[in-house]
Each structure stands twice: as structure tokens, then as C-alpha cells.
Specification:
Elements: H1 6-10, H2 13-39, H3 42-83
């Protein structure tokens, strides 16, 4: 069984977009949670809920896209092996 090339998958345009948007959303989410607790601000709690939801959605999209590309790559490897 051949290994997939994770570097090639992570170089995908959409994977980079998910990465560069998801990490800041996650950081905003964590910061708003801490600041909301520290300052006692309900607005920060609402920001946490919105940003955490966005970060989870982007994270799930990243994982689904990774699996789709890995399966596609594995199939192409198997097809090239079977034709040889």
C-alpha cells in the first residue's frame, strides 16, 4: 500500500485558504472567551459563540477536503499501479 503525499495535499489552494482563515478565527475565539470571563462582558461571550462556530465549520471543511484529496490521490496511485 502506497503512502499519500501530505505535503502535496496541504499545498492545495483551498487547504491554504481554510488554514489561513481558521487559525485566526480560533485565536479570536479563545481570546474572546478569556477576555469575556476576565472583563465580565457578555458581548465577548457572543463573539466567542460566533467565532467558535466559524472556526469549527472551517476546521470541518479542512478535514473533509483533506480526506477527499487523500482518497483521490490514493485512487490515482492504485490506478497507476494496476496499469503497470
Amino acid at each position: 500500500m502506497s503512502q499519500i503525499d501530505k505535503k502535496k495535499i496541504r499545498a492545495d489552494k483551498w487547504m491554504r485558504r481554510f488554514l489561513y482563515s481558521g487559525i485566526p478565527m480560533g485565536l479570536i475565539s479563545i481570546a474572546s472567551l478569556w477576555l469575556g470571563q476576565w472583563l465580565g462582558s457578555s458581548a465577548m461571550g457572543q463573539l466567542f459563540i460566533v467565532s467558535a462556530t466559524g472556526a469549527l465549520v472551517v476546521g470541518m471543511a479542512y478535514n473533509v477536503r483533506f480526506v477527499m484529496l487523500a482518497v483521490r490521490q490514493q485512487r490515482s496511485i492504485e490506478n497507476s499501479d494496476s496499469t503497470e
